[in-house]
Amino acid sequence: MCIGMPMQVLRIEPGHALCQGRGEQRRVNTALVDELQVGDWLLVFLNDARECISAQRAHEVNAALDMVQHAMAGNYDTAAQDDALGFHLPSHMNLQDLHALTGDKQ
Fold first, then answer.
1. Are 50 and 9 contained in the same domain?
2. Residue 86 above 70 pLDDT?
3. Most exposed of 25, 80, 85, 103 (fewest Cβ within 10 Å)?
4. Same domain, yes or no, for 46 and 14?
């Protein structure tokens, strides 16, 4: 399984960008995304940028990755993590929030 990492563009080069995210810097192939500017956020899979994302979406993905990292380390407290990160996992949402998340009009 390949997991996308949000990375922020630090410098642009022809066909590539130097990006930073989750504590590391990488030279990322940008052939699959539109024109970039320094400060843009990318979702990166195996050193290839697959899409440009908003800063909000980068925060959400990073928060989800943090939850996975905590769970793998065995120190995940669902309620505390949900409150600290500002959103809830679907398994902890009420029915109305689940409908909103999925776009269901019920």
1. yes
2. no
3. 103
4. yes
